[in-house]
Structures are given as structure tokens and as C-alpha cells.
Amino acid sequence: MIPPGFAGVEAQLWLWIVAMVRPGAAFVAAPVFGAAFVPVQLRLIVALAVGIPALAATHFALPPDGLASIAGFMLVAGEVMTGLAIGFAVQIGFSAAVLAGETIGNTMGLGFAAMIDPANGQHNPMLGQFLTILATFLFLAMDGHLALARIIVESYRALPPGNAWISAQGIHGLVLFGGILFAAGLSIALPVGFALILVQLVMAMLARSAPQLNLFAVGLPAALLAGIVLLALAAPVIGQGILAALNQGLDEAARVAAG
């Protein structure tokens, strides 16, 4: 027999579980929060801290049969879908920096050089990892993590638990937003990438005019040196491009949260 003082503990625990689902799913798909180096315990605590006040403002009540029912399953599925869509929208904007780094690295001849990325535990090109770290710093400097938490809380108004199903138009907009990833990545890499293409054209002209010249021995150091100098010169422009991509990701996440 449950003591009278603990009669409502089980129902409160189920409410806490429901409160963690949407923020937890968003943090799994979002940058920084979903990184492999972020402990799961910390992610759960932050998800609970964001979800409890947001859920309390909606006057939510558990299904009569609990979560172990068809209504409860549909409730959890809607919460997971909404959270993943919000986090994935921000991740698309964040991934533009990775794409730009891969483009610049391949143009510089560093496509073969890869290192372990601590964010996902996989091999990434060196410049891709460098721009990923830069994007992480910019994301935190612009309070992107706080903006993401605000978007999650506001999503409970338009998409309350139990009715958290994104419209077909919202899903279609998210799919179309994925195309912006390539446009944003190429726009970030354009200042350095276009100049490196000109360097490659000059090396090709030298190879045609002097066939005895070892193009690999001369062209690779020249591309590396030019790439390093151009990265230093274009760093402010690259940073502005990454900020623009991150803002686009947050704006798309806000549109998804609006239903």
C-alpha cells in the first residue's frame, strides 16, 4: 500500500517523463547538445529543466490509460517527432560550416587529412573540424543554446502535448530548407575556394608551359600556402557566413515550432 504522502508521486514521475521527451529529442538532433562529449545525464537534466515549466503552462493531463496505451504511444511519438524536427532544423544550419570546410580542404589538397571529430566521434577533414569548432563558439556566443531552449518552450503553445503533430506544410518547408545547407556551405567557402581555383589554374598553365616541372611537388605547397593566407584574410567573412547559416537554422526551427 502506498503511503498517503506518496500517492501522487507516480503520476508526477510520468509527467516528468513526458516533459523530457520533446526537449530531449531536440537536444539529441541539435548541435552542441547532441555532441558525443556531452554526458547523457547532463542532457537529461537540461531537458527536464526546460520541459517542466513549459509543460506546466499547458495544463497537460496524462491519458486515462497512461502512457502504456495507444493514446500514450501517439503522445510520445508526436513529442519525439516535434523535438527532432526542431533540433534537426538547427543542425542543418550548423552543418553548413562542415560542408564549407570540406570544400575548402579538398581545394587545398587536404581532403586526405582527417582527424577524429569529438562532436560525433567520426573522421572529419581538418578544415571541416576547424570550422565546426568555430561554429560552436559562434553558436554559444550568439546565445544560440538559449534561443533553442526558448523555441522549445514556445512550441508547447502551438503544439501542445497530445496534439504535437507538425503539418505537412511544415515538414515540406523543413525538407526544402535542407537545400539551403549546400547553398550556405558553398557561400561560406566561396571567398577562399574561388581564389584557390585561380591558383590551380595558374599551376595548370605553368605545367603546360614547363612540362618538366613537377606539378605535385610545386602545386600542393602553393595551394596549402595560399589556402592558409586566404583563410586568415577571409576569417571575418567566413564568420559572418556561419552566423547567417546559424540564424537561418534557428529561424527554421521557430517556424517548425509554430506548427
Please give a quick description of this structure.
With 259 residues, the protein is mainly α. The protein is built from eight helices and two strands, in the order αααββααααα. Strands 1-2 form a two-stranded antiparallel ribbon.
List keywords for this structure.
mainly alpha; 2% strand; 259 residues; 2 strands; 8 helices; single chain
Would you spell out the secondary-structure blueprint of this structure?
Layout: H1 9-29, H2 40-56, H3 70-108, E1 114-116, E2 123-125, H4 126-141, H5 144-158, H6 168-209, H7 215-233, H8 235-257
Antiparallel strand pairs: 1-2
Helix pairs in contact: 1-2, 1-3, 2-5, 3-4, 3-6, 3-8, 4-8, 5-8, 6-7, 6-8
Q: Which residues form runs of ≥5 with pLDDT under 50?
A: none
The total beta strand count reads 2
Supply the helix-strand structural class.
mainly alpha
Structural domain tally? 1
Instruction: Write down the secondary-structure element order.
Output: HHHEEHHHHH
Indicate the radius of gyration in whole angstroms. 24 Å
Mean pLDDT: 81
Strand content: under 5%
Strand order of the largest sheet: 1-2
Percentage of residues assigned to helices: over 70%
> Main β-sheet, in a few words?
2 strands, antiparallel
- SS field, number of helical segments: 8
The N- and C-terminal alpha carbons lie at a distance of 44 Å
Report the principal-axis shape.
elongated
